[in-house]
Amino acid sequence: MKAILVDDEMLALRYLEKKLVVNGQIEVIGKYLDVEEALEAVTELSPDVIFLDIDMPGLSGIEAAELLAEKAPATSVVFITAYEEYALKAFELNAVDYLLKPVEDERLSRTVLRLSSRMQSRMQSKQETEENRPAMLRCFQIMEFDLDKPEAIPWRTTKAQELFAYLVHYRDSLVRKDVLLELLWPEVDVKRGNTQLYTAVYQIRKTMDALGIDIRIVSFEKGYRLELNGMKLDVEEWERGVMQEKEIRPDNLDRHYRLLDLYRGDYFAEYDYLWAESERERLKTIWLRHALAVAEWLDGEERRTEAVSLYYRIVRMFPYSEQVYFALMQQYDKLGEWTSVDKWYAELEHILQTEFGADVSETIRTWYDGRKPGKRTV
């Protein structure tokens, strides 16, 4: 394995280099006192690992690790620190390991073994990753990658998860750092908030790298831009499909059913992000219009059982919609199942009274009274 070492103290660099030479499994191809010079060298030298001091003047090791994840995502990071509290931060950054100064031989050997195991694991999984790359990022209900089956994303922190979701929401657009700080870390000072932001971006990049996902977060002076790089997004696929398949026919009904199924739940519903609320409602309204159109087409084709099944689904999504309850009652009436009509009328009446202190609309009440057994109008 090839490594570069970064520390602002020359004695510390020489000491670590000597330890690595004795270990014999890592070749030191560069030593740097300046972290920015080291970052420039990474692109040219392509090291397997960078041993990086956290407590550096100017650009800190934490900030450098975030930039490194963009320049060379395959390069592993081992943090060097004289302070135990920084060691915990190293693990938050998803570093391979951390070493406390002065570095001990036995502890260094464990780190090298961990690096070796990680490299072997990457080599073994590289081909599998290429062949089984997830085809879609799902944002309906829960955020996960999907190929043959859903794959949960192993987030290190909830902040990294929300940051990724927010960048996906504003994909291909520049998102300002100050906006992200106000959204995710409003209670901390700017310096600490920036450190938290760098850490979260670093975690996201490492998570994508570990999953073999070619989603990139591009850094700018004032912010970040997320690029999907060909990864499909269920929200885009679904909305595009609904817009294209406006007419419902027997030959494309299966396509409409697949679109209804692609909407697994509300947009980011599992996380209840307030910033997603307007988009959540917009998409939900589109789904309602589409579902009602399919149900009405089924009704027109006298496919009553299928229509009832779909109206059930719509009621679960929109439990306060009189329109949907009424449509379901009408379907059961056409099927001659008055017990079910009575049940759903009572359910609607109960919900309106309990939740809103309101009565069933006069239109529905008049229809219901006129359809009761013995009172039916022709």
From TrEMBL:
**A Pfam family hit:** Response_reg
Which keywords has UniProt assigned to this entry? Answer: DNA-binding, Phosphoprotein, Transcription, Transcription regulation, Two-component regulatory system
Any keyword Transcription?
yes
Which parts of the sequence carry 4-aspartylphosphate? Answer: 53
Output the InterPro entries linked to this UniProt entry.
Answer: AfsR-DnrI-RedD_regulator, BTAD, CheY-like_superfamily, OmpR/PhoB-type_DNA-bd, Sig_transdc_resp-reg_C-effctor, Sig_transdc_resp-reg_receiver, TPR-like_helical_dom_sf, WH-like_DNA-bd_sf
- SMART domains assigned to the protein according to its UniProt record, in alphabetical order: BTAD, REC, Trans_reg_C
Q: Which PROSITE patterns match?
A: RESPONSE_REGULATORY
Which residues belong to any copy of the Response regulatory domain?
A: 2-116
Family, according to the entry, reads as follows: Belongs to the AfsR/DnrI/RedD regulatory family.
Q: What is this protein called?
A: Response regulator
Which organism was this protein described from?
Paenibacillus hodogayensis
